[in-house]
Amino acid sequence: MSRRPSAVSRRRFLQSTALGAAAAAGVLHAPAVLRAQGPAIKVGVLHPVSGALSYSGQQGRMGAQLAIDEINAAGGIKSMSGAKIEAVLGDAQSTPDGGNAEVEKMNGAGVAAIVGGYASGICLAASQTAARYDLPYIVDVGVVDSIVSRGLKNTFRFGPGFGVIAKTAIDSLVTINEQASKAAKTLMIVHEDSAFGSGLAKLLNTQLPERGFQVLETIPHPTPTRDFNNVVLKIKAQNPDLVIPANYYNEYVLLARTMQQQKVRPKGIYSVLGGAASSYKFVKEFPEAAQFIMDCNHWFDPKNPKALALKKQIEAKGEFYTYEVYMNYSCVLLLADAIERAASADRAKIIAALESSTFAGHVMPYGPTKFVNGQNQGAAPANTQVIGNDIQVIFPAAFASAKPVFPMPPV
Amino acid sequence: MWSPVILVPAILNGLMTGAVYALIALGLTLIYGVLHIINFAHGALLTAAMFAAFFAHQWLGIDPYLAAVGLTPLFFLLGYGLQRFVIGPAAHGEDRNILLVTLGLAVVTENALLYVFRADTRTINLPYAFDTIEIGTAFLAVPRVIAFAVVIAVALALWLIMRFTDTGKAIRAVAKEKFGAELCGIDVAHIYAVTFGLGTACLAIAACLLLPTYYVNPTAGNAFVLIAFTIVVLGGMGSVSGALAGGLFVGVVESLSGLYLGESLGQIGIFVMFILVLLFRPSGLFGERT
After folding, report:
1. What is the total count of domains within chain A?
2. Are B9 and A229 an interchain contact pair (Cβ–Cβ within 8 Å)?
3. Within-domain flag for A17
4. In this structure, are A388 and A257 located in the same domain?
5. Residues A82 and A191 both lie in one domain
6. Does the global pTM surpass 0.80?
7. Is this complex's ipTM strictly greater than 0.95?
8. What is the DSSP letter of B83?
């Protein structure tokens, strides 16, 4: 008997709490209405901020948030009476499944579009899931080419894919070598053994011999690898003119340090999407090991004042200006431009606006923006080289800030 | 490929790497031998020690080798406290509970480190990190030679402690016959905690030896622990000299199989060895027959 009244009172309690919550929500919404501003536009910001890729994910999220803050501070989306952009943050936990789950959540939260993914595997899965809801998805990095060749209407990639990067890398290498009167004839490839490194090594192994290089040996290694002494011993024994590493940050740094330690100094170290080769962190921490290393990678336009201002802003926070930052920054600006022109948070209208985008307000060294089947045709990597305590762009000529130093001068 | 120009440095490198493996395995085998539990928090504690050594250098400018002098007693106390006030009481005398508690500790420690320090990979650039000693055709990195020497010294010290001090004798007594030791007036809870402390102190030393040539991030320790488990089994559970010999052995096997089978397959050598030992000498290569 004594239970009954308590059950009733609990129900009453719940009712009153619900009413209270509704009232509170109403009060909280009121100021937004008073400011005569459109309702906020929700945008999904998806990155692997935990797990193996968390550093890259956190950097990417930072870039996206900076762009959102900037747009909101400048008055939001003007064609929608100054509507603010509201980030719906998601953590893909460094797995494709994690990415999928977040897309579902974001769709439930009513986002207008999603930006991010970082790793190819996450981008592939997350964009596919987003396609089910006709949800526009802008890939921030993901370089695997199948991301944009599946015929998904909703998926856009602003940056370059694997094929373009590899082709540019080989073309630039041939040019650099010819300028140095063909100093390099032999080379060795050191790559990590997952899809990224192995795929690249395969590509290089078929294309480089056609361009007059002899591949002496291709050495795969797992991630993580604790010790590179054996790899360096093999390099030492074969003595190639060029070493081409394709691996992630930690292994790249260990390899470069071990080469320095074992006094192995080829004529050049040339990377394609090298994990640390064009990283300010690496240059700052190991200036000697990093010296004269060349890379073909995502890079910002060193002649764009906006890119340099962003660099200052990031460095003032004590963070490193990595490619994840400016690529996500550019992708969010691209999306905001599309929403501005669509004058709507409607998903189909945003997709149409992205398809016809000629957005130029980004910070990348790209050609004119034009999407064909979701791929930006203007996207291209840049060649960089560590010279002194800085990273200089050496190719393409239109964006270059220095001439390549090759072969490496003796110590 | 078989020329001594490559073979000799590869073996020497294997010994250097193996020494650090051995030290990490020493801590693990000690805890296993006495408490009869597998300490899943070993990797996370190693990572924590590496962060401690890193920040000792970053904030206080203390060289990692010097930091070892302070960090070793500190981590001994940490390990002692963990066993005495967390793992012991939470276990309620059940071994499988201990397993879960250490697993929980590992998850908590790793994620706390991730939360505080983010996933950033950190390295120290020391002036002597690139110095080498030339032995024949081999260039041996100075920090690795130092690590090798320190590990041998630590293993010797540990062996002496276990052999000749009262605490060492008590530890061995508890390991052999817990109930009997308790009847003789040995405080088992205290001995458990001391053992756990010694194991954790080994990690602090290992962390300080690793840092000049390696990096630290919130999952850095895990790369070593699977190897350490293998060494513990190879060397015979709970055996100090077994862990040392096993560590050096695994280092050389890894180095040579990496050289001849490729780095991707380098670890296969270790695990093939591991399976063979489990099949034919379950008490370990260097363990006493039970």
Report:
1. 2
2. yes
3. no
4. yes
5. no
6. no
7. no
8. I
